[in-house]
Amino acid sequence: MSVHIAAKKEEIAPVVLMPGDPLRAKFIAENNLDNVRLVNSVRNIYFYTGTYKNVSVTIGASGMGCPSIGIYSYELYYEFGVQCIMRIGTCGSYLDSIPLFKVINTDIAFSESTYAKTAFDYPEDHFYHQGTAFDIINQTAAAMNIPILSGSIHSGDAFYRADRELPAIAKANKCLAAEMEAFALFANAKYFKKTAAVLLTVSDNIITHQVISSEERERSLTTMTRLALEAAHKIHEAI
């Protein structure tokens, strides 16, 4: 057990898939894993462990923002010995050419967040994906004929901003999209020398104002889910 995760150490798999929403974690686990069981419900942050093609996988929610995923990923790496965390979340596209439901494999996360500086005295405003998961995801996508994008994203601390213009850090670094968690996950993985990847599905377009519904965010991210599970299977073999 850890402070925020009540599972026993052996109940958490070496590879964890981490959506933000607890109900999305529940839906993905119950519809894709065999022998699935709930192993944590503290604060209604659900973690489920089961098997995918006979390989143990945990699916657990991160909550929203760098502080929240920072807590859960830290405890998973440090207390439970997890080797790889793959965030499977949603994002808002900064380009009108990127349509809804497009999948992005995050290469670099840029942020104005003070999370990494406060936690580890890391001065950087960006972190790369950590370990081999990024490459395995790209290889898996190619083998499955799933077209994905790879590139930089912006991890913002503020969902709502008085200034509606594209944030300067996102503009300067040609970020494809905005989300709120990748920066902290990559920082934690760097600190522990573990593996981390971030797969994102475009749930809204900041330029065109198109958006998918909350139910679709919970239940319809099937392309990303299939890719993440297949990649997790290969990552498990590689660690």
Essential attributes:
alpha/beta, globular, 10 strands, 239 residues
Going by CATH, what is the homologous superfamily? Answer: Nucleoside phosphorylase domain
The helix/strand class is alpha/beta
Would you list the SSEs in sequence order as H and E? Answer: EHEEEHEEHEHEHEHEHH
How many domains would you count in the coordinates?
A: 1
Task: Give, in spatial order, the strands making up the sheet with the most strands.
Answer: 5-9-8-6-10
Q: List how many beta strands DSSP finds.
A: 10
**Which shape, going by the Cα principal axes?**
globular
Polypeptide structure, described:
The protein is 34% helix and 27% strand. With 239 residues, it is of the alpha/beta class. The chain has one domain (9-234): 3-Layer(aba) Sandwich (Rossmann fold), CATH 3.40.50.1580. The protein has a 5-stranded mixed barrel, surrounded by 4 helices. The protein starts with 14 loop residues before the first strand and ends with a helix. 48% of the residues are buried. The mean pLDDT is 95.
Write the SSE topology.
Blueprint: E1 15-18, H1 22-32, E2 34-40, E3 47-52, E4 55-60, H2 66-79, E5 84-93, E6 103-110, H3 115-120, E7 126-128, H4 133-143, E8 149-155, H5 168-172, E9 177-179, H6 182-192, E10 195-205, H7 214-219, H8 222-238
Parallel strand pairs: 1-4, 1-5, 5-10, 6-8, 8-9
Antiparallel strand pairs: 2-3, 3-4, 5-9, 6-7, 6-10
